[in-house]
Amino acid sequence: MINGDVSLILDEIIRDKNFEKPHLIVIDPPRGGLSLEAVENILKILPKNILYISCNPKTQARDIKIMTEYGYQLKILHPIDQFAQTFHIENIAVLEEALDYMKTYYRGWLSSKLLL
């Protein structure tokens, strides 16, 4: 398990030639969602599954849209009302990688399209 600021940790992981593709990444960004750099780095390491917890459905939808454009499928989206009698909710989303034949396509396409 690796814990920390996604924008700092993923840069280091991407450079590590011995790093194995993770089965699961759990992300819980602040209200502003993930930075574009963070989304790009998550997509570069191609995790099998992404568990995305969010307190802002709007930024979560924005980030999930990008992830689905790069080969992930939204499998579960579940709102949780942790703060009764307020408008605040937490969303839990589970994304999984696309079919195997698509992964090869997306890996090549991703490396040519991302802004780095």
Low confidence ranges: none
Structural class: alpha+beta
Reading side by side through the largest sheet, how are the strands ordered?
A: 1-2-4-3
Mean pLDDT: 84
CATH superfamily heading: Vaccinia Virus protein VP39
> CATH architecture, please?
3-Layer(aba) Sandwich
**Tally of alpha and pi helices:** 4
Would you state the CATH class?
Answer: Alpha Beta
How many individual β-strands?
4
Major sheet size, sense and barrel closure: 4 strands, mixed
Helix content: 25-40%
The total domain count is 1
- Assess the beta-strand content as a share of residues: 15-25%
CATH topology, by name, is: Rossmann fold
Description of the structure:
Keywords: Methyltransferase, S-adenosyl-L-methionine, Transferase. One of its GO terms (molecular function) is rRNA (uridine-C5-)-methyltransferase activity. It comes from marine sediment metagenome. This is TRAM domain-containing protein. The chain is an alpha+beta fold. It has a single domain (6-113), classed as Vaccinia Virus protein VP39 (Rossmann fold, 3-Layer(aba) Sandwich). Helix content is 40%, strand content 23%. The chain has helices spanning 6-15, 36-44, 57-69, 100-113, and strands at residues 24-27, 49-54, 72-80, 90-97. The chain has a four-stranded mixed beta sheet, covered by helices on one side. Helix 1 (6-15) packs parallel to helix 2. The two termini are 26 Å apart. 18% of the residues are buried. The model has no long low-confidence stretch (mean pLDDT 84).
